[in-house]
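[job 0412] stage=fold_complex status=start
inputs:
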Amino acid sequence: MSINRFQYSIGLIGIVVALTVSSCSEDWVDTKPYGNPSTGTFWQSEKDIEQALNAMYVPMRYESTWGRDLFSMQNASDDVVTGRVKADFDNIKNFIPTGREGYMSAGWNDVYWMMNKANQALQGIPTAQNVSDEVKNKALGEAYFMRAFSHFWIAYLWGHKDQGVPFDGPENPEYGERIAPQLPSVTDNYAQIISDLEKAADLLPLFSTYSDDQKGRAHKVAAWGYMVKTYAYWAQYDPSKWELIPPLVDKIKNEGGRALITGKENGKENFRAVFKIENNWGPEYIWSVTSGTQGGSEFPGVVLENTGWGKYNGWGYFTPTEELFDAFEEGDPRRDITVLNFGDKFTYFGEEREYYSTNSLSGFMIGKYMDPYSYGSNGESGSNDMINQNGDYPTTRLNLPLMRYAEMLLFKAEALIMLGRNGEAAEPLNEIRSRVGLNAISNPTLADLKHERRVELACEWTDRVADLKRWGDFDNLRMPLHGRDHVSKTDPHSAYNVIEIWPARNFDPAKHIAWPINPDEISRSNGVYKQTPGW
Amino acid sequence: MKERINIAIKNENLAKAILKFSQLIPVEMAYDGESLQLSKYRVKARHFEQEEAQVVLDYLLSNTDITYKKSDENIVLVKKLSAQQMGLITGHVSDENGESLPGASLSVLELGKTVSADQDGNFRVSVPPGTYTLEVRYVSYEAQRRTGLVVAEGQNLPVNFELKVAQGELNEVVVIGYGEMKKSDLSAAVSTVPDMDQATNRPVVDVPSMIQGKVPGVTVVSDGGHPNSVPKVAIRGIGSRASETPLVVVDGVPNAPYNPADVESITVLKDAASAAIYGAFSGASGVILITTKQAKAGAPGIQYDGFVGAKSAWRLPQSLTGEQEAQVYNQAYTAAGLNPPDGWDASKNPDAQVTRTDWIDEIFRTGLTQRHTVTVNAGTDKFATLLQGRYEKNEGTLLNTFNENLSLRFNARYDFTDHLKLKQEVFYNNNSSRGTETASGYSGAIISAIYMPRSATVYYEDGSFGGVGPKDSEYLGIFGDAINPVATLLRNNSYNKTNDVQSVTELSYSDIIPGLDVLSRFSYYQSNYFYKNFDPRRTEPGKPNDQNILSYEANKNFRWIWENTINYNRTFGRHNIGAMFSTTAQTTGLRGFGIAARNFEREDYWAQFFVNASDFDTDRPSDSQSEDRNVSYVGRLSYSWADRYFVTASYRKDIAGRLPKGFQGKGFPGLTAAWKLSSEPFFKVEGIDLLKFRASWGRIGNLSTIGINYGYPTLTSNTLYQVGDGAALNTAWYINNLFNPELSWETSEQTDFGLDLSILQERLTFTADYFKKKTYDLIKQQDTNWPNTFGLGAPLINEGEIRNEGLELALSWKDKVGEVTYGIGGNIATLKNRVSYISDDPNAFWSHGDSWRGILTPYRSKVGEPYYSYWLVKTDGIFQSDEEAQSYVGSDGAPIQPNAKAGDLKFVDQNNDGQINDLDRVYMGNAFPKFTYGFTANVNWKNFDLSLFFQGVGGVKLFNAFKQSTLNAGEQGYNRWDKILDAWSPSNTDSDIPRINAQDPNKNFSTNSDWFLESGNYLRLKNAMLGYTFSHLPKKMKLHVYLTGENLLTFTKYDGMDPEVGGVGMDGGQYPVSRAYALGVNLTF
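[job 0412] stage=fold_complex status=done
writing structure:
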C-alpha cells in the first residue's frame, strides 16, 4: 500500500493553510473602526474644540431637564399646582417623594452628564493642537461656565447646609479614579461655582460680539448673572455675600449692556414683549434654553391646555393658583400676561379665542409662553411654523428664559435691602415697576421685594420654592391652595366659586429644606453617598 | 480488496498476470491454475496506477468463465457457473407497514456478497447452488437474518423481509461538535431532541419551540406571543449578565440560516466539555447543533409537508365601560380631596358615559398560521440533489402582525470517487415581518386598549381613526394621552424585508491513509435588510402628532467562515483512537445607512416618497460600516479501550479581533471520561443493555457582549439645537463611556456527572446528569460604585461570578402490545441559580435598571441570591380602618406610614426603624424557573397515531406591572382594567386591591412591593396531535394527515393574560401566547 501524490498534496495544503493562518492571525484579525473619530486622534483642530463644547449644550433640550422634569420641584410652590392627575408629581409637590421619581432623578442624571462634558472639555482643551490660545481661552471660558451652570442647578436643589452635592473636576488629582465626593456643605459647592464663574467671566466675550450662529453659547454676562444668583443663594448662610451683588449687577448693565425691554405702547405690551420670539435675544436676555421647531425646551407645550382644545398636544401641567392670581396688585398688567383666566382673549393658530378650560385643576393656565401658538391660520396647528409638529416633543421657536435682566435688578434690590440700604433699593425695584406702568415705591421693604419678585417672575424657571425656603416663608409651602370652579367650564364668561383645589401640605424645614437623592444613586455609590439630611 | 496497487499488465497469458497480481495484494490467493486452464486466456496490456485491487482482478477475469470468492483470509478463484447452473434469490424488503425500503442492504454471508434493494425494495442475487444465510440491514431497523436457505441449480428462491423499527437508540449516531459519535459511546452531556417527526409537524415555526420541554436542562421561555420573535433558550441556567444565546450550528456552520421544517435532528451540547470545541463563540451557555435533511439516492420523488391553522388569544382583560370609568374617576378625585373634572359629570358630558367600543375585542383577531414545504429529491449513489421550496406565514393574534418566510434550498452531493466528495448547499430566505410593541407602559398596543375610554369609537363617521372622544368635545382632557390601539396596529404598513443567502461548499477527502480524512468547508452568508416606513400624522385627539415622517433603512451583512479539519479515527485491536485538528478563520462585516424626511402634504401611498417631503433637516442621514475577524484553532484527542473506557480531551484557542491588543487570545479546554460498566466481562446482569457512568469538565466563553472594534475606543456623536439663532442643528462629539483596555470575554466552567442506563432490550432508557456550572469574569457595564454623578457612561468590566447547579433526569419507555406501539417519556430538571461573587466588598450588589414607566425598579442581584432577584418591600394586607393605619407605629410611637388610610397597603417595616424605605426591601426570588418538566405520550394503532405533550415550569415569580397602570386611579386619566371595581372600599373589605384615589399618598402603586409579585408556574398541554396514515394508495404514494393543537390547556394561578411573558418577568401587558389548531398533511409521491 502506498500514498499517492494527490493524497500527499491534500495533506500538505492543510498543513500550509494551518501554518499560514496561525503565523499572521494576530495581524489579520486587527480591524479598525470606521466613521467616528477615535479618542486618540481628537483635539487636533478648532472644529474639534467646537464639537466637544457642543456636547455640553446637548442636555438643555431634554424633557428631563428644562423641558419639564426639573420643574417638578418648582411645582411645590404656592404659585402653581399640577394641572392634571399625576401621582408622582403630586408626591413631590406634597413633599413626600422617595427621590426615585423619574422627574427628579432623570434631571439629576442629565445635569451631571452635562457637567462631565464640561470636565471633558476642561481636560482636553489645554492639550489641543493647531489651535490658537485665543480660541482655547474662549473655549475654556465656555466649559467653566457650563460646569458652573450645571453644578448650580444640582447644588441649590439637593444641597444642604450640612451636606453639599457631589462635585469633582480634572483639577483634582483623584479625578476619574474616585466617585465624585459630596462636598461638606452646599456653601462649598457655591464657592466652587463662583470660582468657575469668575474664570468664565474673565475668559468669555460679551454676548454683543456674537454672530447669529454663536448665540446660545456661554458669554460673559451669563457668568456674572449666575454669580449674582449664586451669591444670593449663598447669602442665606453667609449674609456677607449680599455685598458682592450690587456691583456685579451694575457691571451687567453697564459693561454687559443688558436692559429691560421698554418702549412699547404701554406697560402691558412692554411686559408681553419679553416673552415674544422676536425678543429671544433681546436686551433682557441673559441665559435661556435656545429653542426651535426641532429641539429646545418643550415647556410651552407642557403648560399648554391639556389636548390644546383638540388642536394640539398640550400637556396641561402646572396651572396657576388663585393665590398667585390674587398676588398681583390692582392694575398690574403682568397678571394678564402671566395667568390666563376665563374670558381672557388670545390668538391661537391665527384665530382669536377666549380662554376656558374643562381640564385645568385651578381654572387658570400659564400665559407667558403663548406667543408661539399665535402663529398659523384658521385654527390649524399644522399651519404654524413656529412650533414643533411632533406632539411628543412640543418645542417652539420661543427660547425659554432661565435668567433675564429683570431678575438681576430684583437681586440687586434684595441685596441692598438685606444690607439695610433700602433707599438705594428703590431704583432697581422701581425700574421693574415703571416698565409695566406701576407707581414707584420710595423706600421698599423686604415684603415689597418679595411681592415684586413673585409677580415679575411667576411661572418662570427662577424657582419660587427656593425663594420661599431661603426667606423662611414656610407657611406659603403649607397652606391649602385655591382655584376657580366655574359653573360651566366650557363658557368663558361663566360664574365661578373659589374652592380649595389642593389640601394643606406638611412642610417640615428640618427635613424638606433640600430634596432627597434617588436611593438607587446612594446604592450605586456603595455607601459613599449619604442621603440628604432629614430624609 | 480496497487496497490500491500499481501494476503493469502486458499482453500475456492470464496465469502470469494472476501471479503478478497475487504478489501485490496482502491476502493469499488460492486457485488451481491447471483445472481453471488459466494459461489458455490472454489478457490485454494495461497500466494500473493506484487502482483498487478488486478493479484490477475484475479486469483480469473479464471475458473468462472464471470468478472469485473472497473472504478475510484469502481469495479463491473458481469456475463460473453458467446462468442455468446458478440459482437465484429474489424478494422484497419492506417495513412493518408494507412500505418498501429501497437501498436496504442484503448480504449472502457465505459468499461475502452484498447487494442493495432497488427503488421498489426489490432485490435479486444470483448464487451457486448451496445453502445460505441471508442478512438484511437498514438504518434504524433491526437487522434480520434468514438461515438454511437451500438454493438448487437454476432455482429462483423467493424470500421476503419485513423489518422492524429498531427500538434501540444506542446505535444511533449523534452529531457532536466537529464530528459525530455513537450515542452509547458518548462521555459528555449531550442530548438529542426526541420525537423530531412530530416536532416538525407542529404548528410552530422555530426551533426553540420544538425544544421547549423536550430536553431537561434546556429552558425555553417564549417572549410572549409576538409572531416575529423567537423564544429565548437558556442551557443550564443564566450565567451571563448580558445576552446569553446558545450558539446554533447548522450542518457544521455556525449561525447559518435554515428552514425549521427541514430539521432532521437537534443535539444540545449541554456541558462545557462538549461545547468547549466552540470556545468563545458558544455564548457561555452551550451549543445547539442542527442537522437538516440532505440529498440522498433514489428516483426523483416529491414530498409535500404542510399545515394550516388558526390561533386565538385567551384570558384577555377588559376595561371599564363609560359609566364605570366616570364612577371610578369621580370616586378617585373625591377621595383625594380634589374636585372631579366636569368631563366626568354625566349632566355636562353625557357622551363619555356611553359605552361604544370593546377595544380588546377590536385589537385581537384569529390569526392564521400556515406552512407549505415541497421537496424534490433525486439521486444515485454518486450524485444526489435536493430542491426545496417553503412558504410560511405566521399571523399574530393582534391585528396586522405577522411573520412571513419564503425560502428556496438546493442541496447536492457529488461523489467523484469513494474518497473525494463535494457537497454544496445554497439557501435563500426572504423574510417579511410586522410586529407591535407591547412592553411599553405608555403606548403598548394592549395596554392602550385598556387606556382608551370605551365611549370612544374605532373610527369617526368620516372613516378616519377615532380619538379619545368626538373631535369637538370640550372635555377630552379627562382621558389622558391614550392612543387608539387599532390605529397603532393598522397604521403600521412598513416594508420590512430581509433576504438571506447562504452558500456552503464542503470538499472532503477520506482515507488518505486509512482513517485519516480531511475536510475543507467554506461558507458565505449575506443578509440584506430593507426597511421603509411611513408614519402618518395622528390627528385624532388623545396623543396627536401633526408630523408625518418617511424613513428608510438598508443594511448589508456578510460573513464568511473557512474551516479546515483533519480527522483521524482508527481501531487497532481493542484500541480506538481519534484525533482532530481544525482551523477556522472568519470575517463578519456590515454596511448600512438610514435616511428620513418629514412633512408630507399628502399621505396617499403614491405620495410617500421623498420628492414630496418638505423637511429634510430634522433627521440626519446615518451610515455605518464595520468588520470583525476571528481566528480559531481546535484540537481533540479521543481514546477508548474495549468499549469500556472512554476519554476525550479537546482544546480550542480563539483570537478575537474586537478585543484590545494583548487580550485577544484565550484557550478553552474540555475533558470527558466514561466507563461502560455493562461492557465489563464481569458485569452480567440480565436485562441491562447499557450502564455507563460519565464525567466531564470544560470551559467555554462568551464574546457576544463586546462590541466590534472595542479595542479602538471612539467618540460618540449627538445633535443639538442650542447653539445659534433659530436653534440650528449642530453636532457634538464626546466620550460616552469610560474605556476599559483590559476587557476580556466571560468564561463559563462546568463539571458534569452523568449516568446512562438502558434495560429490557432498550425498552427503558434513563439518563441522569448532575452539573455544576460557574460563569465568571462576567461582562457588564459597571453599576455599583458608578453613580450617575460621574456623568459618564460606566465602563464594561469583567466582574463577578454566577453559579448554576442542577439535576436532570430523562426517562422513556417504548413497547408494543398487540397492534399498539406506544412510548412515554418524561424529563425533569432542577436549577439552582446563585450570584456567588461580585467583589471583595461584602455589601456589593448589582442594580438593574429595568423599570416600569420609570416608577418601579424591582430588580437587584446580590451574592447568595438568584441573579435578577426581585428586591421588594413586603406587604401585609390592606389597612381596614384609618385607626389601624395610624396605630401601625414604630418603636418611637410615630406612625410608620403617616399618609396611610383605610384601604391602603400595609408595608412591612423589615428593619424596625419606623419608616418604609429601601432598607425594608427583601429578596424574593426571580423569574427563571427553578424546575422545568415535560412529558410525552405517543401511541400508534393500525394507521392511527396520537401524541400528547405536556410542559411546565415551577418556581417562577412574575412582576405583574400591568396592575400598576391599570388598577391605579392616579395615573393620567386613562381608562382602567375592570378589576379596579373590586378595589378595597368600606363595603368591600376583603379585596386585595388598594382603594381608589386620584393621588397615591401611601405610594401603593409606586412602592416596589410584593403586591405586584405573583407565581408564574404553569402546566400546559403544549401539543396534542392525532394522525392517520393512508396505506393503500396507488404506486409509492404515502399520505399522512393530522390534526394538532398547541397550548390547548394551561393551568396557572397567574392573574395576567399568560404566564410566559419572557424577559426578566416584568409583565406590562405582554402579547399573550395563544392557542392554535392546525390541520396538516405529509404527502410523498
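[job 0412] summary: Chain B touches chain A through 125 residues (CB under 8 Å).
[job 0412] exit 0
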